[in-house]
Design goal:
Number of helices of chain A: 8
Distance between the termini of chain A: 67 Å
Order of helices and strands of chain A: HHHHHHHH
CATH topology of the largest domain in chain B: Quinone Oxidoreductase, Chain A, domain 1
CATH architecture of the largest domain in chain B: Alpha-Beta Complex
Order of helices and strands of chain B: EEEHEEEHHEEEHHEHEHEHEHHEHEHEHE
Radius of gyration of chain A: 25 Å
Distance between the termini of chain B: 10 Å
Shape of chain A: elongated
Number of strands of chain B: 17
Structural class of chain A: mainly alpha
Number of helices of chain B: 13
Number of strands of chain A: 0
Largest sheet of chain B: 7 strands, mixed
Largest interface: A-B, 43 and 53 residues
Helix content of chain A: 55-70%
Number of domains of chain B: 2
Radius of gyration of chain B: 20 Å
Oligomer: heterodimer
């Protein structure tokens, strides 16, 4: 069975900015790691994440320089790097708070990636082919053929006549 | 009976539900022959209108045949063919007496909710959340129409459903949007949004004598319909250049349109960079209910002393509202859910006279059971979809 990927590029962007802002602002204090190396790492991760989000070519990007698929690759690499950091530099020995937030965030990020549609289309779940088969109209003909459907000035004329 | 019901965000399904019954002496039951999916239904579908409940029957654009009526109904007989307006009006309150039917004071049983959000209650609306009364909608085989003497127009000739169905909402709404612009002849009118309501607002502005009508949208096929069918004289495709304000100035010698119609509403998608990102994130996190790029750009682009007409649906609060531009340019901001009953007879006459054929917006005609695919196709602008009509 094909795995559902309901997150489109816009919703992914919403999550990027929401999580990035949370990491950068209140989250370190909330989990009581403010002022520790772990807190600084979480803040840096938030800043970097929000930063390259603004440079991504998706609806919420400001300068559309990074393709969406490259953004997703950066997400994956970033998540793995964040999870690895406490273990690489040894701060995991100082207690749970020094590594659990990193691993939790990485797990969240990888889970989000797993349900994000890399094409960016996301949650479209209609059957367009079935609609085309059932449709008794011809959209192309309705849009591109035939005369105007309105007579300009007709309301003014009728009001004057009345 | 079969009906299309809301089942959560981005989900509708066609289910068997109990048939409607006469509850009050002024009610009628209509067997629905044609119904449609409205652009504003997508706000419900996307989960941005509060107070929806699972199982609510959607749909506020419908017509059909009267099959039963209460003893208090005087103007209708069983067998009459009627189009039903989306706002439910009592016909007797101060608002109705002043033809302000969409703010009827008597038809919203959940007026307390609306008063908290809007300061006052508004009229009940078919199939449009419990904020507007929780009335069952018309994407179904049958519907109960309260105050049936007031809330219908009889179709007494053999015009096909498709020509008169849109008297229920989008034609009067488009007309209302143009009517708010005080068109006297020769004006330049810009219309944000080339969806069904936007198309009919453009057509209405032309009928009223506007000299130029500028259509603004991000989909080429919709702009093509605006040009080929609704009579738009100019188009702006914001997927090519998102700076709409500057383009409108260029098209009008730097002055700006005389009036601008916002036929977009709370889910505008043409935003610019950071502003759009902030709005999108805040709306998704429920920190603001309305994404207001269209309204912002409408206010910024309208010529000084001009009129901004808002017929796109907004639900609550939006940020970064340009009060400075509104005040210092001396703009008039006019808005509302259309007072459909005020315009139905006039527009019916225009249709009969051949002044307008509103069926040009119909690109998809499906069975009621295909409503879920119809919603998805409409929402995601697949298959050049502009308007979906459902035949129960």
């Amino acid at each position: 069975m094909k795995m559902p990927r309901p997150i489109d590029s816009t919703l992914h962007g919403v999550t990027d900015y929401t999580v990035g802002t949370a990491l950068l602002t209140f989250l370190p204090k909330r989990v009581d790691i403010d002022g520790t190396p772990a807190g600084s790492q979480i803040r840096a991760a938030g800043a970097i994440h929000a930063g390259y989000s603004t440079l991504t070519d998706y609806p919420l990007g400001v300068v559309k320089a990074i393709p969406f698929k490259a953004h997703l690759a950066l997400d994956a690499v970033g998540a793995l790097a964040l999870a690895a950091t406490p273990f690489v530099i040894g701060q995991w020995k100082k207690g749970l708070k020094q590594w659990v937030p990193h691993v939790a965030l990485a797990t969240f990020e990888l889970s989000l990636l797993a349900i994000t549609d890399p094409s960016g289309k996301g949650d479209f779940h209609g059957d367009v082919e079935a609609v085309r088969r059932a449709n008794s109209e011809n959209p192309q003909r309705k849009i591109y053929e035939g005369p105007l459907a309105v007579r300009p000035g007709s309301a003014t004329e009728r009001a004057a006549a009345a | 009976m079969r009906a299309n019901v809301w089942s959560g965000r981005n989900t509708v399904q066609v289910e068997n539900v109990p048939d409607p019954k006469i509850l009050n002496e002024n009610d009628a039951i209509v067997r629905i022959t044609s119904t449609a999916i409205c652009g504003s239904d997508l706000h419900l579908y996307d989960g941005y209108v509060p107070t929806m409940k699972r199982g609510d029957i959607l749909g506020h654009e419908f017509m059909g045949e009267v099959v039963e009526k209460g003893p208090g109904v005087r103007n209708l007989e069983v067998g009459d063919r009627v189009v039903v307006p989306f706002p439910i009006a009592c016909g007797n309150c101060w608002s109705c007496k002043h033809e302000l039917y969409s703010v009827c004071e008597n038809t919203n049983p959940n007026s307390g909710l609306a008063e908290k959000l809007f300061g006052h209650a508004t009229a009940g609306i078919f199939g449009y959340s419990h904020l507007t009364g929780g009335y069952a909608g018309g994407q179904a085989e049958y519907a109960r129409v309260p105050y049936a003497d007031v809330n219908q127009i009889k179709i007494e000739d053999d015009l096909p459903d498709e020509k008169v169905l849109f008297l229920s909402d989008i034609l009067p709404t488009g007309w209302f949007g143009a009517d708010l612009c005080d068109i006297e002849g020769g004006e330049v009118i810009a219309v944000f949004g080339a969806g069904p309501v936007g198309q009919l607002a453009m057509a209405s502005a032309l009928m009223m004598g506007a000299e130029r009508v500028i259509a603004i949208d991000g989909y080429e096929y919709r702009l093509a319909m605006a040009r080929n069918k609704a009579g738009a004289t100019d188009v702006i495709d914001f997927s090519v250049d998102p700076d709409i304000v500057e383009q409108l100035k260029e098209l009008t010698g730097g002055r700006g349109p005389d009036a601008v119609i916002d036929a977009v509403g709370m889910e505008a998608s043409h935003g610019h960079g950071a502003l759009h990102a902030i709005d999108r994130v805040k709306q998704a996190n429920r920190m603001e209910s309305d994404r207001g790029h269209a309204l912002r750009d409408a206010i910024l682009s309208c010529r000084p002393g001009g009129i901004v007409s808002v017929i796109g649906v907004y639900g609550g609060l939006m940020d970064k509202f340009p009060t400075g531009a509104l005040m210092n340019k001396g703009l008039q901001l006019r808005a509302g859910q259309a007072h459909v009953q005020r315009y139905m007879k006039l527009l019916y006459e225009h249709i009969k006279n051949g002044d307008i054929d509103p069926s040009f917006v119909i690109t998809h005609r499906l069975g009621l059971d295909q409503a879920p695919d119809g919603f998805e196709t409409f929402k995601h602008k697949q298959d050049d979809c502009v308007k979906v009509v459902l035949n129960p």
